[in-house]
Task: structure prediction
Amino acid sequence: MTEQVQPLEEAPPQSRLLGRLASVDRWWLLVLAAVGLIFLLVKASPHPYEEIFNFLTDGIVMTLQITLTSFIFILIVGMFGGLGRLSRSWLIKGIASLYVEVIRGIPLLVQLLFIWFAMPQIFEKIGYLLMPYWPNAGQWFIDLKLQPFSAAVLGITICYGAYMSEIFRAGIQSIHHGQMEAARSLGMTYVQAMRYVILPQAVRVILPPVGNEFVTLLKDSSLVSVLAVADLTRRGREYMSRTFLSFETWTMVALIYLVLTLTFTRLTSALERRMSLGQRR
Amino acid sequence: MEKEGKGSSQKMIEIIGACKSFGRVRALIDVTMHVNRGEVVVIIGPSGSGKSTLLRCINHLEVLDSGTIIVDGIPLTDEKTNINAVRAEVGMVFQQFNLFPHLTALENITLAQRVVRKRSKEEAEHIAYELLKKVGIPEKAHAYPMQLSGGQQQRVAIARALAMQPKIMLFDEPTSALDPEMIKEVLDVMLDLAREGMTMVVVSHEMGFARAAADRIIFMDAGRIIEETTPEELFTAPKHERTRQFLSKILH
Ligand SMILES: Nc1ncnc2c1ncn2[C@@H]1O[C@H](COP(=O)(O)OP(=O)(O)O)[C@@H](O)[C@H]1O
Ligand SMILES: [Mg+2]
Result:
């Protein structure tokens, strides 16, 4: 009996290690498989795959730039939007709620088209209205021209900021109200209590949905190709219209997106694990 | 009882005609009471009688509908009163501890010292270590709340409130969420505080504590103060029938 029990007693640490390795590795393997597939295609038939890949690299960089830049602004808008929806001032609460409800009701693609095609007209109108009273400002509005990159970041931020506001709101609300009371009873102001007590806890709660938003955004960023932004999708379209190699081009584009999204999914869940370990520490 | 400061009848807390409703529920009805400097007042009464509401109003976590509360000479109802400054002088200990779970015991005790009292890190940590020693868990400075027992958490919560060097301490059922074997370690800390002359308002049904430390006991029922008396009188000859009934329930 004892001889049989002994190995079992030793097993837990070992199997826990193996278990952790397995649970981490299994999903990274999928990333590796997708990378391997791209590599294989490029090596096995450089024409056209290597050509396509080289043509698309600028697009990959642009897609990442758009996504990361927008995401920083989205987090800022989301934090203030979430706090705004919980504000005790009816005005701030009203503005924040109106923003969230309206923006969530309009498709991202339509919002991007609006910013790109309709906003210049609005700016021009404002400019002509201001002209008689304040020529400098009027001229500034008429000359105002959003670059495709800025327009894309602006459109994405406005849209995703609304969803992020809801995530922040739910995260802040999930923290027990006793935390706010304890902080306030020690003499902290509302802002100090938010900053040092509520938000640090809310961040851990919202990390999974925020990571999810990031990956969704990475995919939705393909919509900015309508704004003359040379992202991965638009580079794919350019290559296809030049060579008519539809199957090869879109296979490559899809595989690259897959590698990007799988990688970021893995990274966010690794971050989550580290954060929850940090709390248990 | 040989308690310092008892002779000086200077009022630390004065409550006059306090009323508070939550919708249709009348939580406080014309409550008038005071607490002198260095006094320990224990409040008892059935659940829902308004004990927590009364404490929360003293700390301005709830705002009165009508009436006045004056803490150390400062009226809370006055528009010009800096509520945060008053709160820093009034420590509060909650039934559910309400420690900050993302911070260590030490950080729990230093946070408000640093952001409210603007103390340096060294000074705040020095005070925190002293207080952890005082409540008997200096070795737990770097533990997170979830690594501590209930009794240890509540003692950290008391240290956290004391770190602000408050003039008044409010305790809202500090031991009722604790396992029986941990109640004593928390009550001992509170007894020490009472002996040092801290002004305390304690909502608790721990009659041993009330007997040992209370200068006065207030019995509340349905939002009103029914009886205000000394521990000796309460246990020997309660004046009101309702007090008698309540006591027979908690003393069995
Ligand atoms: N925030 C609140 N909202 C609504 N009702 C409340 C609130 N706080 C307390 N009450 C009500 O006020 C009454 C007194 O509550 P409380 O002061 O917590 O009593 P106790 O602490 O004596 O048990 C109860 O009927 C309770 O339901
Ligand atoms: Mg209560």
Q: What stands out?
A: Residues 2-44 of chain A form the longest helix (43 residues). Residues B 22, 25, 27, 45, 47-53 surround adenosine-5'-diphosphate (ligand 1) (CB under 6 Å).
